[in-house]
Please model this.
Amino acid sequence: IREVAQYSEFVDFHVKLRPIFMKEFAKVKSKYFPGCHGEALFVGTIIHSLEHTHMDWNLADPLWLDTTHTEYGKMAELGRIVKVGFVGNLPGLLFHKRYKGSKHPFYEKIYEEAAKINEKLADNMDTCIIK
Model:
């Protein structure tokens, strides 16, 4: 995967951030996250939330996906559903869901380090996926 990082902003960000995340997580696991697996938290929050963000940025219209394609049509159908139902941010949330501005020491530290790597991606990291 490191070979791909030079060609992908997304991969480069994750490859650089993951060791920082895991190191910081190990420091606070017992205090803030007992029973939580660090890798699962990294994948479930940072990678997953940025996958949703990238779909939103890269697919303006779900009708661009070709559902008639013989090999990928079913995946296009699923992609359409995901795009319209699970990608955009929900209005009116009564709680903060981003790493940035979370006021939680762990999430703030991760955001601070992530922003040094790529501020645009760091600004879109969610602590939970709610779309």
Remarks:
- The helical segments are 2-5, 9-32, 38-58, 73-85, 105-117, 119-122.
- Residues 9-32 form the longest helix (24 residues).
- DSSP finds six helices and no strands in the chain.
